[in-house]
């Protein structure tokens, strides 16, 4: 699964399938474990039958860490 912070995939088109996110409160189970959070959004994207997650963002505040992105199906532009 492609996971990218870019808002698109150069040279490709895509169809949006849905939004994916994972959040964690520091000190909770997982403790803001970023690899676990990425795995969570990948599992959500699989549920949308997506093959990529684009525009991935990481936001944080004093109490919460959140990872979010857009699940898409990427296709190659012929040409």
Features:
elongated, Translation Initiation Factor IF3, 46% strand, UPF0145_dom_sf, alpha+beta, four-stranded mixed β-sheet, 79 residues, 4 strands
Polypeptide structure, described:
It is a single chain. By secondary structure, this protein is an alpha+beta fold. It has one domain (2-76): Hypothetical protein apc22750. Chain B (Translation Initiation Factor IF3), CATH 3.30.110. 18% of the residues lie in helices and 46% in strands. The chain has one helix spanning 34-47, and strands at 2-3, 12-24, 52-60, 65-76. A four-stranded mixed sheet has the order 1-3-4-2. It is elongated and about 45 Å long. The protein starts with a strand and ends with a strand.
Termini separation comes to 24 Å
* Helix/strand structural class: alpha+beta
How many beta strands in the DSSP annotation? 4
Count of discrete domains = 1
Largest sheet: 4 strands, mixed
InterPro entries: UPF0145_dom_sf
Short overview:
Helix content is 18%, strand content 46%. It has 79 residues and is α+β, with helices and mostly antiparallel strands.
């Amino acid at each position: 699964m492609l996971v990218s912070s870019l808002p698109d995939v150069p040279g490709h088109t895509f169809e949006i399938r849905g939004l994916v996110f994972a959040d964690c409160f520091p000190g909770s189970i997982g403790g803001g474990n970023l690899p676990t959070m990425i795995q969570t959004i990948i599992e959500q994207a699989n549920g949308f039958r997506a093959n990529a997650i684009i525009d991935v963002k990481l936001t944080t505040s004093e109490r919460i860490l959140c990872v979010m992105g857009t699940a898409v199906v990427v296709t190659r532009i012929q040409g």
